[in-house]
Design goal:
About 35% of the residues lie in helices and about 10% in strands. The protein has about 110 residues and is mainly alpha-helical. The chain is globular. The two termini are about 20 Å apart.
């Protein structure tokens, strides 16, 4: 679901409204596994993924995978890419990994 969320980082990313017919067509075609990440559109992809899939499936009918993109501290704005980006990476400790997982689940509106 990398292409969905908002276009603040990538001009080719679709907002939730534009993504809905595409995700619905995938669901209608039998797709039940969706992949996203906390870094896609600064977390907006997870929000859109959760909302769209929530309209189409019950929680037990769909599998959603997400990832932690480098364990980090700092606000999502510090997660931008490019030569001028400032990244505040930290060691991947259990506490930072669990915090990232909890934040992803909140954005996805799951579990």
């Amino acid at each position: 679901m990398m292409s969905y969320g908002n276009d603040s980082d990538r001009a080719w990313a679709l907002d939730e409204q534009a993504a809905e017919p595409i995700v619905k067509a995938a669901a209608d075609g039998g797709v039940t596994f969706y992949d996203t990440a906390d870094t896609y559109s600064g977390g907006a992809s997870e929000v859109a993924t959760g909302r769209l899939l929530g309209k189409l499936f019950s929680r037990t009918e769909v599998v959603v995978a997400t990832k932690v993109f480098m364990c980090r501290s700092g606000p999502p704005a510090a997660r931008s890419r490019g030569p001028d980006a400032t990244r505040t990476a930290t060691a991947c400790r259990a506490s930072t990994s669990w915090a990232a997982i909890d934040a992803s689940l909140r954005r996805l509106g799951m579990d």
